[in-house]
Specification:
Radius of gyration: 20 Å
Number of strands: 15
Number of domains: 2
CATH superfamily of the largest domain: D-amino Acid Aminotransferase, subunit A, domain 2
Helix content: 25-40%
Strand content: 25-35%
Distance between the termini: 24 Å
Structural class: alpha+beta
CATH class of the largest domain: Alpha Beta
Order of helices and strands: EEHEEHHEEHEHEEEEHEHEEEHH
CATH architecture of the largest domain: Alpha-Beta Barrel
Number of helices: 9
Length: about 300
């Protein structure tokens, strides 16, 4: 999965450093107030997947938070590529975080001109041939207690971390978040999809209630090119439990089948034909040789 690298390397405010030597001030607003945003870009075959869309979303998040100052996009693109090369990443991801910076004091009021803190690192990780992609995941539902601007990819991830921790305690693999009205918003770190008995693929429409997933966007494109149809609408937790298939999408999870929700087994209890088809389409779109990388998709 990786090439041998001399040493794990990160990048902080324009400087490449050994990852275990990376340092950020404890007065940084990202640390004190979660005043920052992040992106995670997948790497497959040594290539960055949808990096342009990730940087577009990063810039949107920064604008929505009124940062006023944008990082140099061309520099970020080059650092992504350099970290992939220097860390020998064939399959994995690059993490990018931008905060409003450090000012030597704790003040709720944001500065008029931020001094951005920008931090990046790369990690090897299997994306396609994983137990979750092969066999599916078991999901539990958790109340969605996040703030009202979920469309901003904020570093304030406590609610999501608690949801995933609760899922593990309950013996599940992951969590889907449910609003007070009973409708599923999204996964703790993914977009949620269901497939009805009629083969209809459904996912929630984009709004402030969910994050506009880059993998979600790419899957719309890939399916559209093949004449596939996706219905964008809200669905309840009960509708999800009655679905014959379900799956989630995320930058590092790609397309992950869901085979059980709150102990309710979906369909046969194994990833279904529609989900396998979606996996195949997406894996092909990112340049994978499905027969070699995911032969189980064809079974």
């Amino acid at each position: 999965m990786t090439r041998q690298a001399m040493a794990r390397q990160a990048w902080v405010n324009g400087v490449y450093v050994a990852a275990d030597e990376a340092r950020i001030s404890p007065f940084d607003r990202g640390f004190l107030f979660a005043d920052g945003v992040y992106e995670v870009t997948a790497v497959y075959g040594g290539r960055l997947i949808d990096m342009g869309r990730h940087l577009d979303r990063l810039e949107r998040s920064l604008r929505e938070l009124k940062f006023g100052t944008m990082p140099d996009r061309h520099e970020l693109e080059e650092v992504h590529r350099t970290l992939v090369a220097h860390n020998g990443i064939d399959e994995g991801y690059v993490y990018l975080q931008v905060t409003r910076g450090a000012y030597g004091a704790r003040d709720f009021v944001a500065p008029e001109t931020p001094r951005l803190t920008i931090f990046m690192f790369a990690e090897p990780r299997a994306l396609i041939d994983t137990p979750s992609a092969r066999n599916g995941t078991r999901i539990v539902s958790v109340p969605d207690i996040r703030w009202a601007r979920r469309d901003i990819k904020s570093v304030g991830l406590l609610a999501q971390a608690l949801a995933k921790t609760e899922a593990k305690v309950r013996g599940a693999d992951d969590a889907w978040l449910v609003a007070p009205d009973g409708f599923v918003t999204e996964g703790a770190s993914s977009n949620a999809w269901i497939v009805t008995k009629d083969g209809e693929i459904i996912t929630r429409a984009i709004s402030n209630m969910i994050l506009a997933g880059v993998t979600r966007h790419a899957l719309f494109d890939a399916l559209g090119q093949r004449g596939g149809k996706i219905t964008e609408r809200s669905f309840t937790l009960e509708e999800a439990k009655a679905a014959v298939e379900a799956f989630s999408t995320a930058a590092t999870g790609l397309v992950t089948p869901v085979v059980e929700i709150d102990g309710v087994v979906l369909g046969s209890g194994r990833p279904g034909a529609v989900t396998r088809g979606v996996q195949k389409i997406y894996y092909t779109a990112i340049g994978a040789d499905v027969a070699k990388a995911a032969p189980w998709v064809e079974t």
